[in-house]
Amino acid sequence: MNVTKLVCSACGVTFAPGKVYNLCATCGMPLFVLYDLEAAGRTLTKEALRTREANMWRYREVLPVENPAENIVCLGEGWTPLMPMPRLGAELGMANLYIKDEGQNPTGSFKARGMTAAVSMAKELGIKKLAVPSAGNAAGAMAAYAARAGLEAHIFMPQDTPQANVIECREMGAQVTLIDGLITDCGAEVARRKEAEGWFDVSTLKEPYRIEGKKTLGYELAEQLDWELPDALFYPTGGGTGLIGMWKAFDEMEELGWIGSHRPRIYSVQAEGCAPIVRAFEAGQTHAGEFPNAHTKASGLRVPKAIGDFIMLEAIRKSGGGAVAVSDNAMIKAVREVGQLEGLFLAPEGAACYAAMVDLLEAGQIGEDERVVIFNTGTGLKYLECFGED
Amino acid sequence: MNVTKLVCSACGVTFAPGKVYNLCATCGMPLFVLYDLEAAGRTLTKEALRTREANMWRYREVLPVENPAENIVCLGEGWTPLMPMPRLGAELGMANLYIKDEGQNPTGSFKARGMTAAVSMAKELGIKKLAVPSAGNAAGAMAAYAARAGLEAHIFMPQDTPQANVIECREMGAQVTLIDGLITDCGAEVARRKEAEGWFDVSTLKEPYRIEGKKTLGYELAEQLDWELPDALFYPTGGGTGLIGMWKAFDEMEELGWIGSHRPRIYSVQAEGCAPIVRAFEAGQTHAGEFPNAHTKASGLRVPKAIGDFIMLEAIRKSGGGAVAVSDNAMIKAVREVGQLEGLFLAPEGAACYAAMVDLLEAGQIGEDERVVIFNTGTGLKYLECFGED
Q1: Element (H, E) at A154
Q2: Would you kindly state where each structural domain of chain A is located, as residue ranges?
Q3: Residue B172 contacts A, CB cutoff 8 Å
Q4: Residues of B in contact with A170 (CB under 8 A)
Q5: What CATH architecture is A82-108+210-386?
Q6: CA–CA separation, B379 vs B377, rounded Å?
Q7: What pLDDT is stored for residue A389 in this prediction?
Q8: Which of A161, A163, A172 to substitute to test the interface with B, most B CBs within 10 Å?
Q9: Are B109 and B377 in contact (CB under 8 A)?
């Protein structure tokens, strides 16, 4: 297809496509995929998109798979609805509030996007055994795509990950190991064992393709809003691949001539109990230290240290956005607020974005007439433990 | 739009559109909606569909809402993926096996289709309070669409309905009552209280529009297979609205000139612990008696008596299909068989269809070269109680 090279996000060293990569061999930082966008734009046009398939592979010219017919491992991921929220908007006095519902993906979360790309590339590159540390939803997605591709999936999750994640992985035939610790401890276990076991490490941003899948969120956002990006977007940030991916997509779309130089203000949303990006943003730091004693019901936000922290912080600042922490109580309350007015069962992470948006609206940082998009990264069905009896 | 009248499925009496209906005022049987298909076909063409929205309202000319812009209550339902199953197929020696994954609907099940139609029509007709007896997934869908429409939702479910269903309803702001009994007991409770409470009864086939939503399964099946229906389809049958709806859709599409007179063989799949249709089919009966001591882990199949039994039995027989019962053990085993080869986490009801299909393949009733579609009616995430520790 149109991949020209891979480039290190930190030191800029480049690598030839068609080989197996994890992090930059020079500096150990994440790699990005670069494309010949002029070539891509010859067949990938706004007009062509009107009749493309209703999944994220509609953007295949800017995705890394070389032989799509053979190697795309698809379960129908992406092209999720971006829905106006008229009843919530009326409550808040907002005319242009939207939720993008990633809960309608296969495996019930946005992680399907990254994993379809990573597993498709693993298949294309001849990799046979995959391993991943996960807060839960990445695990379920990897288990599903690995199964569909016929690859081994070795999954490491914290012991207190929601039951839904553990059960879905087992039913997809994955090897599941529960660790008494956080996702960082799971990552350390994968790192310790991968060489001896012959596993390919699919950790967030430690291979170059999950971010390529996630960036389709940005393409869809533009296409679904008729190529006019919103004023602000709220995105729950664990590892941050989606945020970084969208930022990359915006640049690619500008180069394709599809959008201008305007960017939405990006608000990273985290939990009060685990807010490394918020803390670093407020302190004016370029990198985020590991957050101590990380705890939150929003398991996807229980990521005390993200390798892509510096990329996120730069994107947030360049966009003129910010970083907001939300309490667990506020996010669980927000699930029901959104549910009873609009009928969407949000994941706590998505609900956190709604709560953060309301906070900034009240603080005057979001205008009532602005076009605002909230990302719901998964279905609440995967978080039953968070909800009480009444 | 194009509704001409409603007609009783049993006695043939007709009714004018635009009014509130439950069952036939003459004989108490379900009503069907009829359309001016010539008028519908002027704008609803195969060509027009190529650029329509990726949800079931793409077929709005053959759906009952008079004022779509005002009254459609949409959460992105329908246009779910119909996926080839190459790895399962290879195991079984089948070249053309597909699963339609209804788990990717809003609320994680096919019930979204019926409820978007029923709630949209309730909104259009000025109804304010809805009530429904449900085995679980219809409840979650009604709660969601009622919330989005701003209508009251009163929900009655058996006490042992999966937790996911109970929690999703509560988080959508519905009034939930758990009954020590079966869906038939829940239905009796709705019937007993609805007049005093001013509730509109949204029970399966007791209002005319859920079936209209469900019939879009048939339209999608045809469109996704490039207007050539499969040889056989396996559909899990509780109340049977989807089966009856598809049968209706096939006739409509023939009248639209989109397909010929060929019909797929329809196989109704039930649980051994609750198989009224299978029993009636095998006994050559036109109606199905209430199944005693109904029990199965597939909560959606725990429907001992369905008002549309006679319509289902007629469609199954006319199609040259059949009715098959599957044990709970077989369906739970099938979840993992499909999961580890294809990465889909099926509901037990969908897995039952897979198990039934394998049985008929081994019995020679399904040919290895036939094009076969299995309907997975929901995500396994809503049935965590069914899956063990191991």
Answers
A1: strand A152-158
A2: 82-108+210-386
A3: yes
A4: 387, 390
A5: 3-Layer(aba) Sandwich (3.40)
A6: 7
A7: 62
A8: A172
A9: yes
ipTM over 0.90: yes
| Window 82-111 of A, Cβ < 8 Å to B | 83, 87, 101, 103-108
Strands B129-133 and B97-101, sheet pairing: unpaired
pLDDT value at A390 more than 60: no
Residues B27-76 have pLDDT tens digits of: 999 999 999 999 999 999 999 999 999 999 999 999 999 999 999 999 99
B290 in Cβ contact with B279 (< 8 Å): no
Contact A335 B163 (CB under 8 A): no
Could you tell me if A79 lies within 8 Å of chain B, comparing CB atoms?
yes
Q: Choose, out of A167, A223, A335, A337, the residue to mutate when testing the contact with B (most B CBs < 10 Å).
A: A167
B279, with CB counted inside 10 A (0-12, 13-18, 19+), is middle
Evaluated on CA atoms B321, B326, B332, B336, the torsion sign reads negative
The tens digit of pLDDT for each residue in B307-365 reads 999 999 999 999 999 999 999 999 999 999 999 999 999 999 999 999 999 999 999 99
**Phi and psi of B84, rounded to 5°?**
-65, 150
Q: For chain B, say whether A158 makes contact (Cβ under 8 Å).
A: no
8 Å CB contact between B210 and B118: yes
Q: With contact defined as beta carbons under 8 Å apart, do B83 and B112 qualify?
A: no
Q: Is B70 helix (H, G, I), strand (E, B) or coil?
A: helix
